[in-house]
Write a structure and sequence with these properties.
heterodimer; A: 261 residues; four-stranded antiparallel sheet; 10 strands; globular; B: 350 residues; mainly alpha; ABC transporter involved in vitamin B12 uptake, BtuC; two-stranded antiparallel sheet; 72% helix
């Protein structure tokens, strides 16, 4: 079976710094893939390459949708979103002056088409589309459990709710692959439990998930497969148990000698 | 209907009927007409710094382009005002897109400097291309606005030398621009702009093509500025390059900031306040023996005070956008209905 996303020998260089060196792995449709590693390992750089924020220095990204494989490296973020790769950010980036609903409505941008003339004339098409945008947005807000806050300001939400709103916004672009950058950061245990349920629900909705997370308990619980980066290179790949016992991984997290202790 | 809304409607109605009162003064009508010209400009400029969050210091350039387009087309081709308005808007949009496409990749201050340079270029062009614009001599003898309805009735040919009909023409244009702005504000286009203003990276990851939408914003803003210039040319019947100096851009920007960046009503209010203030200061300053140009110092002072005491203007931001949209009102009702049983249950439990 062809993987949903094939990451083939990706390197990313910032001047003299090699942030990623020849990293290759696959994302398979319908899985939750965990991307872990110590701070500064290049996890977010990897996400930014996949999401189109950075252009990889070398290597290939191949995305498969509807049986068609496309080489996607170097495309702009909005093109990636259109293709079906959505993301959330490590430090929350909501449109905080706007309402919760507007945040999600903006995400419908890439799936709608009304232009200046249609908006000014309010054609039948535009009105139908606006209605569809509100309905779809409400569907995704209810999906993450924020429906009743729809008309509140995004900045008035609690931290955990803001994280979930970011997920709703990403889902509203109708992705095939969702990249979550530390979704559980700063959440309390109850919110983290809700997040686990939410991620499973996302998977059931037919969206594959790739996530960066430092909460190892969470990662080991929900990911069937893990990829470990350290200093920009891939050091291990496999199930949670294998990875946990891998001496190289233990060394990366705890330092040299820890594996023998 | 609430009292605030009725009061606003009453004021608008009073202002609109004022020129029909026999005792009305020509001077007041003139000031109101000028205020409405600036309303058009302030609404148009609002799109770029207000909706998209880009500082534009060269807006007067598009105003000048619109005015000279109208002036030259009237003098050389004797075109009707109603044909010139869309042509001037298109010309403004063209120059907006031409300037915007290469420069909107710049961010913040760099972009502001480029727009400033552009408006100076427009003034230099108007001053030096004497074959086209007659340079510093100006462009006199522009015909006033006409309405030609002779195809309905032989006698129906009107030429608006008088203040009153011009007042209604510009009121019509203000209404039209306001209508367009309100519809853009609450649409896919407006939301894309707010997204860019709030967070460009997040906007891109929602699928908004940032550069395209900035160019669209710039072009529409320029088109509205050109429409304002177009009326100005036919109303004042004389144009000269020094009408389009940098100060005008600054004045319109002050109006937008005073009213509240990104708020359409704020732009209208800002225009009224600053135009009236300009008239008052002209009297006061001369009676104090100061040259009228010192009024710009007063504008500067106002900006400082606004930044200190009301940094987001009289009407803060766009938060009200689309709140009156029937879709959202409907949603509000549904949400209230959904939350109601919960409240009842809570009350029962208590």
């Amino acid at each position: 079976m062809t993987p949903l996303l094939e990451i083939d020998g990706i390197s990313k260089r910032f001047g003299g710094l090699l942030a990623l060196t020849d990293v290759s792995f696959n994302v398979i449709e319908g899985e939750i893939l965990g991307l872990i590693g110590p701070n500064g390992a290049g996890k977010t750089t990897m996400f930014n390459c996949i999401a189109g924020v950075y252009k990889p220095t070398s290597g290939n990204l191949v995305f498969t949708r509807d049986e068609k494989s496309l080489r996607i490296n170097g495309r702009k973020p909005e093109k990636m979103t259109e293709l079906g790769i959505a993301r959330t950010f490590q430090n929350i980036r909501l449109f905080s002056a706007l309402t919760v609903l507007d945040n999600v409505r903006i995400a419908r941008h890439c799936r709608t088409t009304s232009n200046f003339f249609r908006s000014v004339l309010r054609t039948r098409f535009q009105r139908a589309e606006e209605k569809e945008i509100v309905d779809a947005s409400m569907r995704w807000l209810d999906f993450v459990g924020l429906g009743h806050h729809a008309l509140a300001d995004a900045s008035s939400l609690s931290y955990g709710d803001q994280r979930r709103l970011e997920i709703a916004r990403a889902l509203a672009t109708e992705p095939k692959l969702l990249l979550l950058d530390e979704p559980a950061a700063g959440m309390n245990p109850r919110e983290t439990r809700m997040l686990v349920d939410l991620i499973h629900a996302i998977l059931d909705a037919g969206v594959s998930v790739m996530l960066i997370e430092h909460d190892m308990k969470l990662v080991m619980k929900i990911c069937k497969r893990l990829v470990v980066l350290d200093h920009g290179t891939l050091i291990a790949e496999g199930g949670p148990k294998e990875v946990r016992e891998n001496p190289q991984v233990i060394e990366a997290y705890l330092g040299r000698g820890a594996a023998h202790a | 209907m609430n009292i605030g809304k009725s009061l606003i409607l009453l004021i608008v109605a009073a202002v609109l009927t004022y020129p029909l009162v026999p005792q009305s003064s020509d001077y007041i009508i003139h000031v109101m007409t000028l205020a409405m010209v600036y309303m058009i400009l302030a609404m148009g400029l609002n799109i770029v710094p207000g909706f998209c969050g880009l500082l534009d210091l060269g807006y007067v350039g598009f105003y000048g382009i619109g005015a000279y387009t109208a002036g030259l087309l009237t003098i050389h081709y004797d075109m009707s005002f109603w044909v010139i308005v869309p042509l001037a808007a298109l010309n403004g949009a063209l120059w907006g897109a031409l300037l915007g496409a290469p420069t909107l990749r710049l961010t913040g201050d760099y972009f502001a400097i480029v727009t400033f340079g552009f408006s100076e270029l427009v003034v230099l062009f108007l001053t030096n291309e004497i074959w086209l614009t007659r340079g510093p001599l100006g462009l006199p003898g522009i015909q006033p606005i006409t309405v030609n309805l002779t195809w309905l009735n032989e006698a129906w040919y009107f030429q608006f030398y008088d203040k009153t009909p011009n007042f209604y023409v510009v009121a019509l244009l203000v209404g039209l621009v306001f209508f367009i702005m309100r519809r853009m504000e609450d649409s896919r286009l407006g939301r894309a702009w707010y997204a860019i203003r709030e967070d460009p990276l997040a906007a891109a990851s929602c699928g908004v093509n940032i550069l395209n939408y900035k160019v669209i914003a710039f072009a529409i803003s320029a088109a509205i500025g050109a429409v304002g210039g177009c009326f100005y040319a036919r109303w004042s019947m004389f144009l000269s390059p020094d009408m389009f100096k940098f100060w005008e851009s600054f004045l319109v920007l002050c109006m937008v900031v005073l009213g509240g960046l990104g708020n359409i009503k704020g732009a209208l209010l800002g225009a009224v306040i600053l135009v009236c203030l300009g008239e008052v200061l002209r009297e006061v300053l001369t009676s104090l023996g100061l040259p009228p140009e010192t009024r710009f110092m007063a504008y500067g002072l106002i900006m400082v005070l606004i930044m200190r005491f009301k940094p987001s203007g009289f009407f803060p931001a766009i938060a009200s956008s689309g709140r009156s949209n029937p879709l959202l009102l409907d949603l509000q009702k549904r949400l209230a209905a959904r939350n109601a049983p919960k409240d009842e249950a809570r009350d029962a439990a208590a």
